[in-house]
Amino acid sequence: MTNLKKLIEYTSTVHTLRPGDVISTGTPGGVGSRREPQIWMKEGDTIEVEITGIGKLVNTIENEV
After folding, report:
1. In angstroms, rounded to a whole number, what is the distance separating the alpha carbons of residues 6 and 1?
2. CA 10 to chain centre
3. Would you call 9 helix, strand, or coil by DSSP?
4. Confidence check: pLDDT of 1 > 50
5. Is residue 2 very low, low, confident or very high in pLDDT (cuts 50, 70, 90)?
6. Mean pLDDT, residues 43-47 taken together
7. Is the pLDDT of residue 58 over 80?
8. What are the residue ranges spanned by the domains of the chain?
9. d(Cα 52, Cα 60) in Å, to the nearest integer?
């Protein structure tokens, strides 16, 4: 989906959106598949998303069970 309005509309049909919810979209430049050599997330890697004045979300990658 390239239309943000449609993405929000669809998301709201399967999840109740509340003030402060964040919908992350897209893939930033420099992703693993485009690098040489390719780089992929692995167990133990940490992903951080921070919004100034709101807070930080930190997740550690784990293997699927």
Report:
1. 8
2. 17
3. helix
4. no
5. low
6. 94
7. yes
8. 4-60
9. 21
- Provide the sign of the torsion angle of the four alpha carbons 52, 56, 57, 61, taken in this order: positive
Question: Is the peptide bond between 37 and the residue preceding it cis, with omega within 30 degrees of 0?
Answer: yes
Q: Which of 65, 29, 24, 30 is nearest to 48 (CA)?
A: 24
Q: What is the pLDDT of residue 12?
A: 94
* 25's tokens: 């979209």
The answer to whether 28 and 47 have CB atoms below 8 angstroms apart is no
Distances (CA, A) of 52 to 48, 55, 57: 13, 6, 12
Q: What is the pLDDT of residue 56?
A: 94
pTM: 0.50
Residue 9, judged by CB atoms within 10 A of its CB (0-12, 13-18, 19+), counts as exposed
Sign of CA dihedral 25, 30, 36, 37: negative
